[in-house]
Amino acid sequence: MEIDVLRDARELRDDEIRLLTLHKGIPGSILEGSLRKVRLSDGVEYQPVSYTWANYDDEDNGIFKCLYLSDRDCLMEIKDNCAMALSRLRDPTTDRTIWVDAICVNQEDPDERSRQVKLMHRIYARAFTVLVYLGEESEENCSNMAMDLLSKVSQQGTTTLDDRQKWSISHLFKRPYFQRMWIIQEVALAQT
């Protein structure tokens, strides 16, 4: 990450967080957004993004992508998995206000990181909804099948599953996302 991107007059106070307005865009176009600081107590609507920093294979591949911050006229390096999450979550017609830890918290500043970790409970509890990015679909993991099945079960109640369906759900929950400690807080505190 470019060290000076988040070091400016926008240092955060105790009740403040940065939010990313992820600008609308078509698939394949450069990721673009702008940052602003807000007070949590002001009731601003936003959606935190819950994801893993590493790719599906649970390894940090060292690949970085860029997010263009139009309000600062600079590029910010972000990890590959963060970029994939933003690409999936970006809307082609409407800007989206989100909170992404790797972008909205100055990872180069241990004091800021510590203060923001203390706010995590409030960040997720006050959110409009939490967006979850599990990673990209692959033929081996059958995530789409598993998600469809879980949706069906939640709407219709219990159902009988064949071996392939059981396998797809089992593999879904083996993804690195579900091994994270923070998932409990992120999902449990979400309003929706």
Automatic annotation (TrEMBL):
InterPro entries per the UniProt record, alphabetical: HET, HetReg/Transcr_Mod
Domain Heterokaryon incompatibility residues, every copy: 46-186
Pfam families: HET
Protein name: Heterokaryon incompatibility domain-containing protein
